[in-house]
Amino acid sequence: MIFNSLSFAIFLPIVLLFYYLCGRRYQNWVLLIAGYTFYGVWDIRFLYLVSLSTVLDFCTGLMIANGRMTLAQRLAPTCHLLGFALFFLVPDWHAVVFQGAYLNNINIDWQQLLTPTSLGLNVLGLSGLGVAVANIAYPYVLKHMEEKTKRIFFLRCSLMGQLGMLGVFKYYNFFVAEAEGCLKSLGVDAPSMHLDIILPIGISFYTFQTLSYVCDVYWGKMQPVSRLRDFALFVSYFPPLVAGPIERASHLIPRILGERRINFENICQGAYLILLGLVKKMAIADGLAGSVFSVYNASGDVGWLDIVTATVAFAIQIYCDFSGYSDIACGVSLWFGIELLKNFDQPYFSLNPSEFWRRWHISLSSWLRDYLYIPLGGNRGSEIKVYRNLMLTMVLGGLWHGAAWNFLLWGGYQGAMLIIHRLFVGRKPAEFCGTLLMRLPRMMFFFVFICYGWLLFRATSFDQISSFTQILLSDFSNMSLHMKIPPFSSLLGIFILIFVEIFQFKRQNIHFYTYYPAVIHGGVYALLIFAFIMGLSNDSQQFIYFQF
């Protein structure tokens, strides 16, 4: 289920209705069921992975902090994991087919549905075996493991389990294919070890989210969650579930457990963020997708002007696509009285790579800083070690985006920019953070380097990167433009977005309109509604970051 779909437009009001009608005691149950429904609509089988991730870090968090679990705390994860395997993996859910424009017709082949799948039975058996081993080993762990050893052991269990899941589903086939290619080039005919698996949507986001919880508990920054249903909601809370922001346990869990007040201001601010996000996604990003595709997936030759315009278009597309999702997620969450982390802060207004990464995908960049860069040593030690830490962090950050060499190259490019900036940052004049007009030349200069990074990110192969780079640096003969012209909705949306972001920068507040009279409020909403209506004519595209 995606935010810009008809199914979500039906789903959200239903959830809100039940949420507002229920008392505070049952609101978290509504959100938990909504989260599993939201994710399960994509592929119900992969709810088992969400359950596995939830159970693993719920248990490891308690064992790290307390060294023990109550009987109820051991029974709840057991029932949760085995129940999800039994219900979501054993039946053949391909027997259930939804039809009709509103998915209102359901055809069910009951014989096929009730015939157990071999995958489901195998996973159920392995889950039962794992649960049995864990419960048998529990008394031994309590009696024979020292406190320090126990903490390290369960931290490693969490890291190996979460990163193992991520590695198998996201990176296994990539590295196997590369290894098979190397062996084939050496004349070795190796048997194929490729697995017929698909990448679970949002796995990079919810695994990082749960890992931050375990690390914070290990470092003593927070107490563990004592009830499984509360931790399950932290993992499966649907607004940020599949494409962020990557929530911190220390930020989201208190908002899940504490009192939530929903007032008129929250409703208005949430509506504005949702509308802004839909304009970014539907009017701008979806409209530019065809233009970018016409160059980066072209079958023929492309010229210098094509590459430049398509790359700038992709820079705008990926920003509007990803920040649009974050805006909608934050807006929807405000309607439930829960404030999410800010994920974007006008990144293209940056003057240097360090500032860019303080403004772009803030939840990921801060995660990499706190859970990778600083544990590696951060700014401590010699300059060489600092540069090593920077490069390793950014390369792994590039790999987080996907299993492909261009993402690794993009991460290396970002690391190189950060290192070069650090090398010269002490030799240049102090940052001048004056008016936007005074910043503009440096913003435009740095935007060129940002765009080349997006070329590496969007390219379909190393050959394309090499060819496009060569054309950009030396071939100025072909200045004709063959790129597909963006629709009017995109051009209008970009104009409105520039207007909005200038005022947002001036006020340092995404809700800048609150500083102006009511007529300005109405004008901003009218412009966004008009752009949204225009964007309805564009072909709907999946959010880019769903693949990560």
Concise description?
The protein has 548 residues and is mostly helical. It has helices at 6-21, 24-40, 47-66, 71-88, 110-113, 118-144, 147-185, 203-218, 228-236, 249-257, 264-296, 304-335, 353-359, 362-376, 383-401, 405-424, 436-458, 462-474, 488-507, 518-535; strands at residues 96-99, 105-108.
Folded structure, characterized:
- This protein is 68% helix and 1% strand.
- It has 548 residues and is mainly α.
- It has two domains: 6-257, no CATH class; 264-344 and 481-547, no CATH class.
- Strands 1-2 form a two-stranded antiparallel ribbon.
- Strand 1 and strand 2 (105-108) form a beta hairpin.
- The longest helix has 39 residues, at 147-185.
- The mean pLDDT is 88.
Mean pLDDT across the residues is: 88
Q: How many discrete structural domains?
A: 2
Order of helices and strands: HHHHEEHHHHHHHHHHHHHHHH
Instruction: Label the structural class.
Output: mainly alpha
Radius of gyration: 25 Å
Taking the sheet with the most strands, its summary is: 2 strands, antiparallel
Output the keywords.
mainly alpha; 548 residues; two-stranded antiparallel sheet; 2 domains
